[in-house]
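JOB MANIFEST
job_type = single_chain_structure
chain_count = 1
residues = 88
[input]
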Amino acid sequence: MIKRKPLVDELVEYVKNNLKKGYTKDSLRWALVGQGYSKLEVERALKIVDQKLAEEAPVLKTKPDIKYEVVEPKEYATKPWWKKILGI
């Protein structure tokens, strides 16, 4: 007798593979629901994928350096509009 993986595990693998390909979670969610899977199974699989990806994510050990720079506005020597029109 052949043992099959539980359906949720198959969905988790499917979602992980397609997320690596660049598909969004929403597009995968509606594609699976459209193929006949229940929303509950799909949501459970997405939740498991989120947990697994969070565990695999690297932890940042250093804080980013934030630098502030004050930018002064440039002053333009502009003529009044009537001098521009008259060419003065």
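[summary]
The chain has four helices and no strands.
Helices lie at 7-21, 25-34, 39-56, 81-86.
exit_status = 0
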